[in-house]
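#structure-requests
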Amino acid sequence: MNAHILVAEDEPKIAGLLTDYLAAAGMQTTVIDDGAAVADAIDTLAPDLVVLDVMLPHKDGMTICRELRQHSDLPVVMLTARVEEIDRLLGLELGADDYICKPFSPREVVARIKAILRRTGNGAAGDAQAPRIDIDEPRMRVTVEGQRVELTRVEFKLLQTLLRHPGRVYRRDELLDLIYDDYREVSDRTIDSHVKNLRRKLETALPERDLIHAVYGVGYKIEVD
C-alpha cells in the first residue's frame, strides 16, 4: 500500500507514533503542526487521506474539514482529545470519514485508515473486495464468504442491525434498544461483550479484515467495503 497520509497534529509524540505505525504498514506520511498550513499542504502534496486533529493552532480541525468539504471528497479522519467532542463532531456532520478519540490504539487507527482507503480506492490500497455476508433471517443463519458463522440470537440481531446502515455510528444504548425487544434492564457495557464475541466469530471467516469499529465514547459501526 503506497498511500500518502498527511498527519495534521501538533503533539510531537502522537505525530511520531502515527508516523511509525503508518510507515510499518507501508504508507508514506507527512506531518504538519499548524492548522493554517493544512490547505496548502493538501494542494501541494495531494495526499490520499488526512488525519486531522481537532485542536490545531491558528485554524482548528473542524473549520479545516468544513472548508475542505466545499470542494473535495478527500478522506478525513478526525482526532479529538475529549470524548464529549465526538457527539459534537457527529452532530455537526462535517463530512469526516471517521472520528477517533485520544488516547487511541495506533493499530486501530491504521486499521481504520486501511478500511477507508479500500472503500475510496485511494493510495493503491489493493484489490480488496467487500466481503459477501448472507443473512438468512427466518433460520437465523449467517454465512461469510460462503463459510457458516454460528451466532447467538443477540449476536445475529446485532450484526443484522449494523449491516442495515454500514458506516453509521450506533450508540450503545441505541443498539441495546434494537437488539433486546423485551426491554430488559441491561448495562450499556453489555454491548461491548457482544461486539467482542461477534468480532471474534467473524474473524474466523475473515482473518485479515476488521469489520466492526468502535467510535470511542459513542458506540460502534460496521465497514464492509
